[in-house]
Amino acid sequence: MKRYLALLLAIILIASVLAGCGGKEVAPETEIEVEEVDETKEEPAEKGPTVYRIAGSKTATLNPHIYETTAESDTMLFIFGNLLKLIYDEDIDSYKFIGDHAEGVPTKNEEGTVWTFKLKEGLKWEDGDPLNANDYEYSYKMLLDPKLKNMRGPQVFDADVVVVNAKKYWDGECAWEDVGIKALDDYTLEITIGFPVPEMDFYLGFTNGGASSPVQEKIYEAGMNEDRTETNYGTSMETTPSSGPYKFEEWIRDQNKIYVRNEYSPIAEIYTVDRIESRVVEDANTRVQLFENNDIDSVVLSGANYDKYSEDPRLVFSKTTGVWSMFVNMTSETKPFLRDVNFRKALFYGMDRKAIAEDIYKTAVPAPYVVSTAKIAAPSKGLAYRDTDIGKNILPENNGYDLELAKEYFDKAYESYGKKMELEIQYFDNSENMKRTAEFLEQEYENAFGSDRLDVVLRGVPWQNAYDNMENGNYDCGFGSWSGGEFNPWSSMEVYTQGFTSKIDQFGNDEFDKLFERTVRGDLIFKEGERLQALAEMEEMLLDAVPFVPMYEPQITSIFADRVHLITKGKYVPGIGFATLQSEYDPLD
Amino acid sequence: MFRYTAQRLTLLVITLFMIISVSFFVLHSMPGSFITDPKMPKDVKKAIEDKYHLNEPMIVQYGYFLKDFSKFDFGLSIAIQPKVPVNQILATKVPVSMQLNIFSLLLSLPIAIVFGIWAALKKNKLPDHIISIMIIAFIAIPSFVFASLLQYFIAFKLGWFPIVVSTEKVLTWNKFKSIILPILALSFGSIAGVARYTRAELCEALNSEYMLLAKAKGLTQVQATTRHAMRNSFIPLANIIIPMFTGILGGSLVIEKIFSIPGMGSVMLDGINAKDYPVAMGVLFWYSLLGLLTILIVDLSYGIIDPRIRIGGRK
């Protein structure tokens, strides 16, 4: 009896294996067909599709109204269209706006508050349905829907471009008719904003795939629940229609995505790549092995993997918009020495940023400043703020590392406090590099100022809690960074104003706040020179008060396979990167 | 037996309810929010959290949870796959992990039992020493180390297998070839565990008095071993083998990450880290249920495997 029982169990087990392996049964047939086609190809002269193979992260959603991560926005660049598109222009070796669904850049009224886009005729969704200005109006209506409460809603009312009454509608306090987004006819979209902004800021609000991309009404509505509080738009291949240069051929959640050209895209011909194969690979070492095995065409390098390729001429570096800093609780009630600017300046000048950037982070650059090198201050020329004379003049010598000066400041602070100081530095407990940085600073500061006068203690904290502690003022020192858009360094200064609701520093300066208002919404907004000067003043105020000690600016290091011939020749272009989809590729073996 | 099973099932339901309730309060007491955008205005963040009742008193939130839970509906994910039903997420991920685990089980059990028997029969001889060293290595070295080594040397350096698992939806030869390395990595630990247990139980049985009696009655060593020692020594093995069968629904966090397998491995951790309460609660519920059922099956199996053991019988 037991033998039969065992036999039965074995049969059930094998059956369950086969059942577990089951699924749609079209794939094997498809595979065979592909092979047959390949075999019949006798003339290799015909060039196959240009394929770009990448490894990426998981995407949680492709609903443009709620996405959060870079992996998601990267996908949206491929499959979602918008009114404008930012592309690389080889002639000027820089970025350029072109019309995507719009005929070109919008026109505006005299006050600069009403902008009008003219849409191209004959636009279509992936399935051939017409796409016009009404789709855009519907999309914005859903983005701001008071019941859906989409996470990306603030993009229209808490960003560089503030649409009239958008927040009120999101809060359910006015009708849609009162909101400043109107499809005047099938080909005209009018946007009314609360205050005038520079062209660059306005264009960027309607460029590339993302929250301002159109959603297809029939699919959005079909996925809506009964009380209209949720929609399943963008949760599967079927519910993610393309309006961009590429469309999905396959999307297996958390495993892979295959994109092919969308024949209905009006800008498809700009791109050289016919097919993008993206594999979800979360392990950094596995990605490098895939790259070395010629399975993918590019990979991001860090740590030991970077060391291996540090001399490789194929390395390219992408800038990031954030500067990582050590925030200091400058209003601490329990530790009065933290309120002493001399103490904070001692921390500033006693920090060896070069060692942190190059020895610990390896690919980072030392940053004794607030505004990252990626921030563009003169969009028309593509000039970075740090490359301007004003931006350069602020920089201290030797990356701000001056031990003698640091000791002078510390002596003053110590004299004022009168006893041994205990300083706690909190770091993210999931980051080995951050832990090493904290340990390095502990050693450096105690050696420089004397362990009999300063005792540095370290505390590992989950990153969310670390930011909460900083926001609530429950810390001495802690690491953190703010990122932001590349093209508006002024609006990025909002995080240091007193009115910012998620403020993690304790800096408060009325003059700073006034300058911020003037550069973002006030009289300086169209005065390029004075606006630049104001930015430098704001940065100086921060460096003088030292609410945080800037440390390093991360760089993302990538390497591309030999078959990829980057059109930018390895130069990082703001807003574009390396223009991989416009680059040339050798055929795959 | 029936009465005992009914009693145990009642206790199972109560235990499960307690686990789920405690988990609910612990998870919802964790600081932080599922909204990760630090620049989002406070009022906007609050409005979004309000939509999911997250700012209401804990007991009110618990009421909403119980209402859905009574229908085994854990709602929609709010972070790791927003707007996708939790049960649907699990339904797509469980088969992926299950496929690997079943193959691993099919590989592990026979090898482990053979190794265990061989080591016991050759106790304190060379085969026993070799097997024991292997067992210690397999137990001491974490499976993700094996996974990394197998991937680097066998897949990357020698090129015998793909570096990551194939994306094919059905089990073709290519697909099978691509999952061999993760299966091996998953199996080493199980092989070691079962082999060690088998060896220990069989050694004890071989030295027992009933073996002496069996041989005194005229049975050969082989007959006595197969008819008496092995059968008796396998009873305690139910303790570890049955959980292996029920454990096939779980996934391995690191191995799945290394070989890019979209299975169950990271769902629980991702759900907790992302404060995706519906997903975390859904996974917790199903895993708790599975764990409790496993314990029940193990207990009930004793009576089936060995009729001398009577469970819940009257005195």
Write a structural description.
The complex is a heterodimer of chains A (589) and B (315). Chain A has 18 helices and 23 strands. Chain B is mainly α and 315 residues long. Chain B starts with a helix and ends in a 10-residue tail after the last helix.
CATH class of the largest domain in chain A: Alpha Beta
- Low-confidence region ranges of chain A: 1-42
Order of strands across the biggest sheet of chain A? 14-20-13-19-17-18
Q: What do we call the CATH topology of the domain at 92-265 in chain B?
A: MetI-like fold
Annotation field: number of helices of chain A: 18
The largest β sheet of chain A comes out as: 6 strands, mixed
- Using the CA coordinates, give the radius of gyration of chain B: 24 Å
**Overall pLDDT level of chain A:** 90
How are the elements arranged and paired?
The complex is a heterodimer of chains A (589) and B (315).
Chain A: H1 2-20, H2 27-40, E1 51-56, H3 70-79, E2 84-89, E3 94-99, E4 107-108, E5 114-118, H4 133-143, H5 154-157, H6 166-170, E6 181-185, E7 188-192, H7 199-204, H8 217-222, E8 246-252, E9 256-261, E10 275-280, H9 284-292, E11 298-301, H10 303-309, E12 315-319, E13 324-328, H11 341-349, H12 353-360, E14 365-366, E15 376-378, E16 383-384, H13 389-393, H14 403-417, E17 421-428, H15 432-449, E18 454-461, H16 463-472, E19 477-480, H17 510-520, H18 528-545, E20 548-553, E21 555-560, E22 564-565, E23 584-585
Parallel strand pairs in A: 1-10, 17-18, 17-19
Antiparallel strand pairs in A: 2-3, 4-5, 5-7, 6-7, 8-9, 9-10, 11-21, 12-21, 13-19, 13-20, 14-20, 15-16, 22-23
Helix pairs in contact in A: 11-14, 17-18
Chain B: H1 2-29, H2 42-51, H3 58-69, H4 86-121, H5 126-140, H6 143-157, H7 173-206, H8 209-216, H9 221-233, H10 238-246, H11 253-258, H12 267-273, H13 277-305
Helix pairs in contact in B: 1-13, 4-5, 4-7, 4-13, 5-7, 6-7, 7-9, 8-9, 10-13, 12-13
